[in-house]
């Protein structure tokens, strides 16, 4: 399976989890013990999935599209893209948890933090790609 399809599947799963958590939050409402936690993770997963799609299409349509053509033949490049993708996803999950802390404790607007995540995820993917390209 190519890196593009893996990223799209992971993004779709994140979007589905986020939408389902938001639906549960909407239906259950006050019956949930940790209402803000469900809402925060729903928004975080949804924005992470959208960011995964943005990162995938940014590479596919941008100046890095030649990497998609040779990635199946070049094992080194395949390792770079795998490591960069996993590092970017790990960073986005940490950011989602940090955002939940900021929203719940300091009552900062969740929408502004989610916009920041949509920018950070593709940029992190590009940065980790450059980092692992020089390291491996």
Textual characterization of the structure:
- The mean pLDDT is 70.
- The chain has helices at residues 3-28, 35-61, 65-70, 75-106, 110-135.
- The two termini are 22 Å apart.
- It has one domain.
- With 136 residues, it is mainly alpha-helical.
- The chain contains five helices and no strands.
- The chain crosses the membrane at residues 39-59, 86-105, 111-132.
What is the chain-wise order of helices and strands? Answer: HHHHH
Number of separate helices: 5
Tell me the number of strands. Answer: 0
Q: Separation of termini?
A: 22 Å
> How many structural domains can be distinguished in the coordinates?
1
Q: Kindly name the structural category.
A: mainly alpha
Gross geometry: elongated
- Strand fraction equals under 5%
Helix content: over 70%
Look at the structure and give the mean pLDDT.
70
Q: Tell me the radius of gyration.
A: 16 Å
Low-confidence stretches: none
Organism: Clostridium paraputrificum
Protein name: DUF2178 domain-containing protein
Keywords: Membrane, Transmembrane, Transmembrane helix
Transmembrane segments: 39-59, 86-105, 111-132
Topology:
Layout: H1 3-28, H2 35-61, H3 65-70, H4 75-106, H5 110-135
Summarize the structure.
With 136 residues, the chain is an all-alpha fold. It is 86% helix and 0% strand.
């Amino acid at each position: 399976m190519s890196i593009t399809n893996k990223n799209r599947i992971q993004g779709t799963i994140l979007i589905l989890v986020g939408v389902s958590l938001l639906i549960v939050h909407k239906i259950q409402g006050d019956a949930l013990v940790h209402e803000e936690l469900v809402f925060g993770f729903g928004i975080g997963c949804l924005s992470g999935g959208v960011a995964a799609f943005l990162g995938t299409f940014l590479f596919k349509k941008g100046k890095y599209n030649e990497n998609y053509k040779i990635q199946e033949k070049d094992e080194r490049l395949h390792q770079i893209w795998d490591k960069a993708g996993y590092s970017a996803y790990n960073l986005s999950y940490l950011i989602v948890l940090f955002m939940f802390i900021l929203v719940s404790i300091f009552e900062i607007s969740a929408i502004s933090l989610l916009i920041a995540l949509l920018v950070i995820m593709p940029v992190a993917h590009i940065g980790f790609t450059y980092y692992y390209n020089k390291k491996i």
